[in-house]
Design a protein that fits this description.
Blueprint lengths: L1 H17 L11 E3 L3 E8 L3 E10 L5 E8 L4 E5 L3 E2 L4 E9 L5 E11 L6 E11 L3 E2 L3 E3 L3 E2 L5 E9 L5 E6 L5 E8 L4 E10 L6 E12 L6 E10 L2 E3 L4 E3 L3 E2 L4 E9 L7 E6 L4 E7 L5 E7 L6 E11 L6 E11 L1
Parallel strand pairs: 2-9, 11-18, 12-18, 20-27, 21-27
Antiparallel strand pairs: 1-3, 3-7, 4-6, 4-8, 5-7, 8-9, 10-13, 13-16, 14-17, 15-16, 17-18, 19-22, 22-25, 23-26, 24-25, 26-27
């Protein structure tokens, strides 16, 4: 009995010596002090830094083979590429805010010889505050008839310590007029920019990048995207941006859009051309000088989001084509 107990004790000691570390894993085992570095709110064109501690809790040397960032704006730098069992190294984490705006999330991937986790990811977060700020970065005008001059506004601002002057506004000169006036904003210098459709703006859809050059802040300017449609004789009710409701894969759907005219000239709609074989547009008379455009999404449409164009051909020499943006999603 004593000999049997001694044998069991010896076997237990041998097994204990062979028992793996770190919850059942032997070899190199990576542990990070955190998987997320959040720099909080930072200004543009700043270089911010922090450190993450990497510890080897295994029983063999851990080797850092490669450090890869998903953009040139982030970097991870280990203080050593080999980490012995029980030791640790610092991973320097750097992020360059550049011209970014708003919340940012970047990734740094550590490739190591840890067999259980050969790729460990550190998320890098920041909320970048631009020097020159807009209360909105996109302006969408409603569909307007040629000769009408609707106005949309945007507020541009910068911190009082930097100051702000509008030097110029460039882009879409044949479509837009602009003006600026100071507005009150605590702790800021701010202007209200007004954009108006010119009475002689050419008919058609437009999407323009308008550059706003400024003087004062370290970053001299910003831009706003301006979109809309100027019609000549035909008016698409509801606008030229048309969205289908979500459709299940293998199903078809239809939308009907009413198109009116001012009745002053004998121009006609000829046909509807689609940029996709999965969308078909058909034009029919709705009585008088009105039309109905029926857009059919075929059951052959592939799964996923789509953005296509249906172009209406007309006999109006001022507006020979009217482009409609068609959006939607086919659900799997």
């Amino acid at each position: 009995m004593k000999r049997h107990a001694a044998s069991l004790l010896a076997a237990g000691l041998v097994l204990a010596g062979l028992a793996p570390l770190a919850g059942g894993q032997s070899g190199p085992v990576l542990r990070l002090s955190t998987r997320e570095v959040d720099f909080g709110r930072v200004d543009q064109h700043q270089q911010v830094r922090d450190e993450v501690t990497l510890r080897n809790v295994g029983d063999a040397p851990l080797r850092i083979l490669k450090v890869v960032a998903d953009c040139g704006c982030a970097a991870g730098t280990p203080s050593d590429s080999t980490v012995l069992p029980g030791e640790e190294v610092a991973i320097g984490v750097a992020f360059s805010t550049r011209n970014y705006k708003g919340p940012q999330k970047k990734r740094i991937t550590l490739e190591t010889n840890d067999p259980a986790e050969p790729k460990a990811v550190i998320d890098v977060l920041a909320d970048v505050r631009p020097f020159v700020r807009l209360d909105r970065e996109r302006i969408r005008f409603p569909t307007v008839r040629h000769g009408e001059t609707p106005t949309e506004t945007v507020v541009i601002a910068a911190d009082e310590e930097h100051g702000l002057e509008i030097v110029s506004v460039a882009g879409a000169e044949e479509i837009l007029d602009w003006s600026a006036k100071p507005v009150a904003s605590p702790g800021e210098v701010a202007y209200e920019l007004s954009f108006s459709i010119r009475p002689d703006a050419p008919p058609g859809s437009f999407r323009e990048r308008v550059r706003i050059e400024t003087d004062g802040p370290p970053v001299p300017g910003t831009h706003v995207i301006v979109m809309g449609t100027v019609t000549s004789y035909f008016l698409v009710e509801g606008g030229t941006r048309i969205r289908f409701p979500t459709v299940d894969a293998g199903q078809s759907d239809q939308l009907s859009i009413r198109i009116t005219t001012d009745g002053s000239k004998p121009f006609r709609l000829l046909r509807a051309d689609s940029s996709s074989p999965h969308l078909v547009g058909e034009i029919a008379s709705a009585g008088g000088d009105a039309y109905v455009l029926t857009i059919t999404l075929k059951e052959t449409a592939p799964s996923g989001h789509f953005r296509e164009t249906v172009t209406l051909r007309t006999t109006d020499p001022q507006q020979k084509a009217i482009e409609l943006e068609i959006l939607g999603r086919v659900r799997t």
